[in-house]
Every structure is written in C-alpha cells, then in structure tokens.
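#dry-run=false #mode=assembly
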Amino acid sequence: VHDWERAVANFLRYLPQSVERWVVALEPPAHERIAQNLTPRLPSAEVVVLDDMSPAGIRDLVDAQGTRPDVGFLEFSVNTGQLWDNERREAMTELAAGWPRDRVKRCFDVWDANFTALFAEDPVEVSQRCYALRDAVTAHPLLEYHNPRNLTSRLSFGCAGAAWTAYTGFEAFDHILPSGEVSCLPRSVTGRLEVQGWIVGTIPFGLKYGYVRRGDLALAFDGGQVTAVTGRNRPLCADLDKAFAKLAGLCSVGELGIGQSTAVAGAAMLHEAAYHWHERHFGIHLGLGVELPEANDPERGGTAHHLDIVLATGALIAGSDVLAEW
Amino acid sequence: MSEPLVSLDDEIEKLRTIAADTDDPRSSALLLAVTDDRVRSALTERIAEGHEYVGALTSFQAGTVDVVFVFVRRPGQFGLVPLSILATVEPATQRVQRVVEHHYVNDTRGRPRLGARQPQIDLSRFIFEQEDLRPSRPEPRVDNGPQVYWA
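#status=ok
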C-alpha cells in the first residue's frame, strides 16, 4: 500500500497543473491497479481503451479533446510485439502528433507489476541529478566508457561543442515517463563494446532477447558508425546484421545518453523482456539511428528507426574524473 | 535419506557459483527458489521417494518468476497426485512468494505473459522503413535553460 501511495505521489509530480481533466488510456487487465490508485487522484479523468476504439474513433478523440488547453492525455500501453495495420498506425501517429506535448504523458510498457518500482524515486531529485550532470559533462570534450569487469570493452566519445539536453519529465518537450537522462549527439564514437545490458527501440529486440549477457554480443565502432557485429548469440547477431544491412542509418550513433534513474535500474530485472524505459537505466546508452538529424532522411540512406544499446554496468570517465559508475 | 541431501547441497553450491558468475536471471531465480526451506524440504522428499527429476522450468511473469521443479514417476509406478513443485520468486525483494507442492506443470506452460521474452518473434517484420516510428522525444539539441517544476 505504501509503495503505491509513494509511486502515485511521485507520478503526480510530473503532471502539469494547468490540466484540469485527463483522458487516460489504459489496457485492462494490465492496468487495473493503476486505474484504481491513480485515477481518483487526478482532478478529473475519463478512461479510454484505445484497443477497443476504431481508428476513426481515435481521430475523433484527438479532434475533440486535443485542442482543449485544459485537457491532457495520459497513456499507459504495453508492447506485446504486435504490429498495427496501416490505418491504426496512422491514427496513433495522429494521436501522438495532434496533442500538444506539454499536456501529454506517455508510459510505454508500464503496467501494474512495475509501476511502483518505476516510480519509486522522487522525480525532482532525478531532475536535479540530470541538470547537475548536464553541467558537468558540458565541460568535457572527450568522454570514455569502460567496464571494470570487462577490460576489452572501451569506447571514446568526442563531445566537443556538443549540446547536452536534460530530459527529466518536467520539460514541456519531454512527455515520456519514467524520465531521467542527459544526452547529446557525439561528434565521434570509436572503440569496442561488449554489450552487457539491453537493446530496446522501434524494433523489439528487447522483447525477443531480454537481457544481453556478457559474451553474447560485441560491437565495434569507428567514426560514429557500427562497423562490426560479433558474439556467441548467433540469432541476436544475425538479427542485428539484418537490421544494419537493411536500414543503413541504423549504423550511425545518433545519441550518447546518460540515464539517471535509479528506480529504472531497480526495475530493470523485474521482467525477462526489456522495454522502452530501460534507456533511463542509470548509466550510459548509445542511441543508434533516428536521433542523428542527418541520418533521418530515408532518401539519403537514413532511417526512422532507433535502437538504444543500454549498458547495465560500467563507468563514464572524463580525464581523471569518474562522472558515473554503475 | 542422507545421500539425496548431500547431492542437493552440492548442486546448490554449484548453482550459487554459476549465479554469481553469470548475469542470467534464471540462475538467480532458481537459486532463490531452491534455498527456500519449503522448496528444499519438498525437493528432498521427492528425491527420497525415488521420483525422477526432469529439470527446472523458469517463466517470467510481471514482476515474478515461476520456477517449476518437474518430477515424474518412474515407469510402472502409479499415482494421481502431481509431483512437480512450483515456487514463485519475487526478484525485487529476493523472496519466495509462494510454494505449490503439487503443481500441474501444464498450467504455466506456453501461456504468453506480460514481461516474458518472446523468442519466437520474427524481427524481419519490423525491419522496414515507415515514418514517425518512434513515439519519442523531440530533439531540441539546445540547453534547457532554467529549471521549471510543475510540481
């Protein structure tokens, strides 16, 4: 009971007070306890089940509610590996685009069993950590990752002049919860990485492979590109090779992210599969694909896909300073 | 009675080493389950009764892991009571939530669950271009400026 009270209180801190009424999208039965504990604490709430709505109904919802400045949209959804048909996908895209982000909070792959763990932390403390870290990393032109338990894994990031952005869930543009990370587009990435962690993103590697263990996958980087995939998990390597071959833009490192959520770190092993929120795991992740603006044009070989390689352990070093160790 | 116990203890020690050396959450769940007194007692009883141990099944649910110790009767031995033992482990609290000493194995097999891996997914279905795939952050790529809290 106390866990729920605390988690709901933490969650509510993310919500803008300008919103007087929330449209809450839930997927029963995954969100029964969330509905029970959260919706009574909102100023006013209308619960909808998007899966039960037609694409036209979803569009009507956006048209009727999305433009109202006092109405917000709160979404809880779970990725089960299903692909939507074109019509539903377009309606969901309109839903995502049609509602101003400062009145939207979306919780992908958050459900009853992980809600209290994912929102166990005071979001203001996470936010303060993010801004302090952003200030600290901005001063460093070169960052290094290494894993003390695995000395063959080492990456260098050229970050001179890179603009670092904090995503804390409180910014008007950051609408994905749980939040908490600082990221930039690195100028260069070189080295070798033995992946020990999770791969999440627009292609459901996390759902298929879950936790990637030491030795299963190694990636080589040069000039900000993935140049080689090796490892003993053959199906995983083959799937990645296939993705890189077909989506050339996915080879580009478009993001160096530094997750700041210890709550996500605590929840990371709750499930066998890995989810979108793993990228907020305390420590670094490398975003491949879409975040790199120049790689975002399919006509130029870019891609609309994005994969995050989230590292479960390691250290981020700047010169003689250890900026983060996890 | 003493021989099975020694064997179980040996296996637990081996498992402890493996769980410490690897990151496999299945090993950790199995170790948590097998070191629970109730599970240990039931396992010892099955072994002592001469039932054949088939192996352990682990299946991940939302926030818990079901570990099923599967036993079968030896050929020709009659019995109606299910022999397998289910331990539901909660990794977050490092506790065994419940133990079912006579568990019907098929009850927990092959049922898709939230949080479970889906190794059968064909990722090729997702490896194609489409616009606005990522329901994600915009890319301001600028400093955030002063902090503003709504809370």
